[in-house]
Specification:
Blueprint lengths: L7 E4 L8 E5 L9 E7 L6 H15 L2 E5 L15 H16 L2 E11 L1 H12 L6 E5 L14 E7 L11 H10 L4 E6 L7 H12 L1
Parallel strand pairs: 3-4, 3-5, 5-6, 6-7, 7-8
Antiparallel strand pairs: 1-2, 2-4
C-alpha cells in the first residue's frame, strides 16, 4: 500500500472536467482498516452532493467516502447499459485501495435518486465487492446479474414528486424481499430528499 492520502476532502484527480472527490476522516494514529462508502450523486449532480450528505457520519464513524462523478449528466445504466461510469469507478477504487487500508467486509455503495438506482444496479451486480447498498429515493434497478446477497437499505419520501414512491420503492421492496435480500425499507413524511435520520439509520445498519 502506498502512502495514505491526508485527511479531509480532495479531488480524485482522475476525470478531468467531471472528476469526483475523496473524503478521508482525520483519525490520527488509527491502525485498523476503514469502512468505505462509494457515494453516487443524483442526475445533474456532483460529488459535493454526496460528500455534504454523508460527511458528518463519516467523520464520526471513521468512514472513507469515495464520490465519483458520472461521465455524462447522469449514470450510464439509466440511459442504456453499464459502460464508462463503471470503468471510472473501478479506477477510483483502485486508487483508494492503493493508498488506504480498507475493511473488505465493510464496503457499501450508496446513492440518491438516479445515484440510488445506479447503486442498486451496481451493488446487486457486484455483491462480492459491496457488502451493503444504501439507496435513498431510487427509481429502479437494472443489475447485469445477481451476485451474492448484499444487505440493502432503502428510504423514500411519501410525498416525492420526482420519483413517486408508489411507482418506485414500493415496487422495488417486495421484489427484493421475494428474492431473499436482507432489506431495511423506510418511508418518511417528505419529498425528494434525504433526511438526516435516514442517513443515520443507513450508516448504523451498514456498520452493524
Amino acid at each position: 500500500m502506498s502512502e495514505a492520502h491526508a485527511g479531509g476532502v480532495r479531488p480524485l484527480g482522475l476525470g478531468g472536467r467531471r472528476d469526483g472527490a475523496l473524503f478521508v476522516p482525520d483519525r490520527p494514529g488509527a491502525a485498523t482498516s476503514a469502512p468505505l462508502i462509494v457515494a453516487l450523486h443524483g442526475a445533474g449532480g456532483t460529488a459535493s452532493q454526496m460528500i455534504d450528505l454523508l460527511i458528518e457520519s463519516a467523520e464520526t464513524y471513521g468512514i472513507i467516502l469515495l464520490a465519483p462523478e458520472s461521465r455524462e449528466r447522469t449514470w450510464d445504466v439509466i440511459t442504456g447499459t453499464f459502460g464508462p461510469d463503471v470503468s471510472f469507478i473501478d479506477r477510483a477504487l483502485q486508487d483508494v485501495f492503493q493508498h488506504h487500508a480498507i475493511d473488505p467486509n465493510k464496503i457499501a455503495v450508496a446513492g440518491f435518486s438516479d445515484g440510488a438506482s445506479y447503486a442498486l444496479s451496481l451493488g446487486l451486480t457486484n455483491a462480492t465487492l459491496f457488502s451493503d447498498i444504501l439507496a435513498f429515493s431510487p427509481g429502479f434497478m437494472a443489475p447485469a446479474q445477481q451476485d451474492g446477497q448484499p444487505r440493502i437499505f432503502i428510504s423514500h419520501g411519501i410525498n416525492d414528486q420526482v420519483l413517486p414512491v408508489d411507482r418506485c420503492s414500493r415496487r422495488l421492496a417486495p421484489v427484493l424481499r421475494k428474492r431473499g435480500y436482507s432489506l431495511d425499507y423506510r418511508e418518511f413524511d417528505g419529498g425528494h430528499t434525504v433526511p438526516l435520520e435516514m442517513v443515520s439509520a443507513a450508516i448504523v445498519r451498514f456498520l452493524g
